[in-house]
């Protein structure tokens, strides 16, 4: 009996990792001579094999190459996961820390919200696996995780077909700050941009910080990571005008952006480096945002928001 139990512990450790503190793995009524048989072994470890696979995958997805290889991303935090659950995207599974969703008199609203999240996942038949706090931290991007993360496939968006009137597009030219990129994508979605193109040199839009910064916009707004050659071909095919912000451009208020019925694309770039040469050569018009003389420039996220708002198509008011 002791030998059977010892071997059971070893097998359990091999499957799930010795750190999981497995308990006795074989029942007392296991027939003699069949201690090695899989079926009668009662695995009372804290985690099944699938949980370990999901946890390992979440850790791996912290790297861009892994996200590109698996075509998966991680959504982290209560609000981000809630938004993902409410979207049409499929979800591979959720990892939650021990205690997530448990009743807590000190934070009743948060506990109710967490339970509702788990119930939504159950309704959609999405696997929810509980791990320790330290294990979740090892897979999370933030220093103090909120106790939940989800793994989902990166959506494959089709090439957009410009709307007949007033189509708007956004091009990200080597934007490297994840927070800025997330904000710009969120703004583009809010202001009716039809699709966003992320050029090489731009941070991976499925980076965990970008996903959080987009506040769910990535789950509904098409973002395509393409070379400039492909984007330029699309813009030329559909006769899309290419606009960019420049200190020497025409004042924003003098450009009839809102009344422009033709499709337009706005290019935003790294504040320090400016537009890439190939992109700059394709720009058909530049505009500038008038500012106080003692202010040198605006954050790219703020500037993009102002320009995209000004570019929203509006039918002219009948006179």
Keywords for this structure?
alpha/beta; Alpha/beta knot; disordered N terminus; 4-stranded mixed β-sheet; 6-stranded parallel β-sheet; 60s Ribosomal Protein L30, Chain: A; 35% helix; single chain; 319 residues
What features would you describe in this structure?
The protein is α/β, with parallel strands linked by helices and about 325 residues long. It has three domains: about 1-45, no CATH class; about 50-155, Ribosomal protein L30/S12 (60s Ribosomal Protein L30, Chain: A, 2-Layer Sandwich); about 170-310, SPOUT methyltransferase, trefoil knot domain (Alpha/beta knot), CATH 3.40.1280. Helices cover about 35% and strands about 15% of the residues. The chain is built from eleven helices and ten strands. It has a six-stranded parallel beta sheet with strand order 7-6-5-9-8-10. A four-stranded mixed beta sheet has the order 1-4-2-3, sandwiched between helices. Helix 8 links the parallel strand 6 (about 195-200) and strand 7 (about 225). Helix 7 runs parallel beside helix 11 (about 300-310). The longest helix has 16 residues, at about 110-125. The termini are far apart.
Brief synopsis:
The chain is α/β, with parallel strands linked by helices and 319 residues long. It is built from eleven helices and ten strands. A six-stranded parallel β-sheet has the order 7-6-5-9-8-10. Strands 1-4-2-3 form a four-stranded mixed β-sheet, with helices on both faces.
């Amino acid at each position: 009996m002791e030998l059977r139990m010892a071997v059971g512990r070893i097998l359990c450790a091999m499957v799930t990792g010795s750190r999981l503190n497995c308990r006795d793995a074989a029942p007392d009524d296991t027939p003699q001579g069949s201690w090695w048989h899989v079926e009668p072994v009662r695995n009372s470890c804290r985690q099944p094999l699938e949980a370990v696979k999901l946890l390992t995958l979440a850790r791996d997805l912290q790297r861009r190459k892994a996200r590109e290889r698996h075509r998966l991303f991680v959504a982290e935090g209560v609000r981000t996961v809630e938004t993902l659950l409410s979207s049409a995207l499929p979800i591979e599974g959720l990892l939650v820390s021990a205690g997530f969703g448990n009743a807590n008199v000190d934070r009743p609203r948060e506990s109710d919200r967490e339970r509702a999240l788990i119930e939504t996942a159950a309704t959609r038949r999405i696997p929810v696996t509980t791990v320790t706090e330290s294990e979740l931290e090892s897979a999370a991007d933030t220093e103090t995780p909120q106790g939940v993360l989800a793994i989902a496939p990166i959506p494959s968006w089709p090439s957009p077909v410009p709307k007949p009137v007033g189509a708007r597009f956004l091009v990200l030219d080597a934007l490297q700050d994840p927070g800025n990129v997330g904000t710009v994508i969120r703004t583009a979605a809010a202001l009716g941009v039809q699709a966003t193109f992320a050029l090489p040199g731009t941070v991976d839009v499925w980076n965990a910080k970008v996903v959080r910064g987009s506040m769910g916009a990535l789950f509904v707004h098409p973002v395509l990571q393409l070379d400039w050659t492909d984007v330029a071909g699309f813009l030329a095919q559909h006769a899309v005008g290419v606009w960019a912000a420049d200190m020497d451009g025409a004042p924003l208020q003098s450009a009839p952006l809102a009344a422009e019925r033709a499709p337009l694309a706005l290019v935003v770039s790294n504040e320090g480096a400016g537009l890439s040469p190939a992109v700059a050569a394709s720009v058909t018009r530049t505009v500038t945002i008038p500012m106080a003389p003692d202010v040198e420039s605006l954050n790219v996220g703020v500037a993009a928001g102002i320009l995209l708002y000004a570019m929203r198509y509006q039918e002219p008011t009948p006179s």
